[in-house]
């Protein structure tokens, strides 16, 4: 059982939850002891632990305006809204079915006053949003280059995993466009492409300021990278202690268990 499958067994209880808006080929899942519920396509793209780690990593002071690029089912806006009671979030998504599902998830959780879903492409973000209109941008972009690894036939999975409709640089340019000067952009990415991330962020004038590597086990190589950059920031990178997902026996570490339970704050 891989980490993603285990995550859904332990944390996202997809079971006998019912709702009249549940459509064919969807499940209704819950997180944070039922405080958050969301529709997901049973055989399409489903969020993973990456989203919770990113939501936990993001720097917030209290009343920021936040943009989530490639919001999918809306999981990151939902998490941020529950973790930070006064932020307002806009999720940008260009796949119509995903955007529609994200809108239903916002309504399902009674968060329409604080979360807006905007249908738009990160490559043409200026067509749907104003420049310098957000304090924080978050992003869980596709990790894999177009011709690497096994490419799914399912549109949702392929677009979420592979850079077929938007590369890392496209997401970073969109983030820079949306951010006010000194605004923050946080993303989660594959650790093996760490050099690509740092280089691309500097090219986009999003100076990396805070970085954390994610490891499956204490003695394993890093699998993910969490990084935060500042628009127009000065050089100087703070490397945080590593985040370890599992203890021996493949039980979640105390920190990750708290993140999944929503009890870190």
Commentary on this structure:
The structure is a single chain. With 265 residues, this protein is α/β, with parallel strands linked by helices. The protein has a single domain, classed as Rossmann fold, CATH 3.40.50. Helices cover 28% and strands 28% of the residues. It is built from 8 helices and 13 strands. Strands 3, 4, 5, 6, 7, 8, 9, 10 and 11 form a 9-stranded mixed sheet that branches. The protein has a two-stranded antiparallel sheet with strand order 1-2. Strand 12 and strand 13 form a beta hairpin. Helix 2 packs across helix 3.
Describe the structure concisely.
This protein has 265 residues and is of the alpha/beta class. It has 8 helices and 13 strands. Strands 3, 4, 5, 6, 7, 8, 9, 10 and 11 form a 9-stranded mixed beta sheet that branches. Strands 1-2 form a two-stranded antiparallel sheet. A two-stranded antiparallel sheet has the order 12-13.
Class from secondary-structure proportions: alpha/beta
The CATH topology turns out to be Rossmann fold
Helix proportion range: 25-40%
- Shape designation: globular
Gap from first CA to last CA: 30 Å
Report the portion of residues in β strands. Answer: 25-35%
The unreliable regions are 1-10, 156-164
CATH superfamily: Vaccinia Virus protein VP39
Number of helices: 8
Q: Kindly state the number of beta strands.
A: 13
CATH class: Alpha Beta
**Gyration radius from CA atoms, angstroms:** 17 Å
């Amino acid at each position: 059982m891989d980490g993603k499958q285990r995550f859904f067994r332990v944390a996202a209880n997809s079971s006998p939850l019912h709702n009249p808006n549940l459509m064919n080929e969807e499940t209704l899942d819950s997180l944070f002891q039922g405080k958050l519920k969301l529709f997901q396509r049973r055989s399409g793209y489903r969020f993973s632990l990456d989203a919770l780690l990113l939501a936990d990593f993001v720097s917030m002071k209290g009343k920021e305006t936040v943009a989530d690029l490639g919001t999918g089912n809306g999981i990151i806006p939902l998490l941020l809204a529950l973790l930070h009671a006064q932020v307002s979030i806009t999720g940008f998504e260009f796949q119509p079915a995903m955007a529609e599902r994200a809108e239903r998830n916002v309504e399902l959780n009674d968060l329409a006053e604080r979360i807006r879903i905007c249908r738009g492409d990160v490559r043409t973000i200026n067509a749907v949003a104003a420049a310098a209109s957000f304090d924080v941008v978050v992003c869980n972009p596709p990790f894999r280059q177009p011709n690497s690894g096994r490419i799914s036939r399912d549109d949702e999975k392929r677009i979420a995993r592979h850079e077929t409709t938007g590369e890392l640089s496209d997401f970073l340019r969109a983030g820079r466009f949306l951010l006010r000067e000194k605004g923050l952009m946080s993303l989660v990415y594959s650790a093996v492409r760490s050099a690509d991330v740092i280089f691309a962020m500097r090219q986009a004038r999003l100076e990396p300021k805070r970085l954390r590597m994610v490891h499956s086990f204490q003695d394993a190589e890093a699998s993910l990278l969490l990084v935060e950059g500042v628009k127009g920031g000065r050089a100087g990178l703070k490397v945080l202690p590593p985040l370890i997902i599992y203890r021996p026996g493949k039980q979640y570490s105390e920190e990750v268990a708290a993140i999944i339970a929503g009890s870190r704050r």
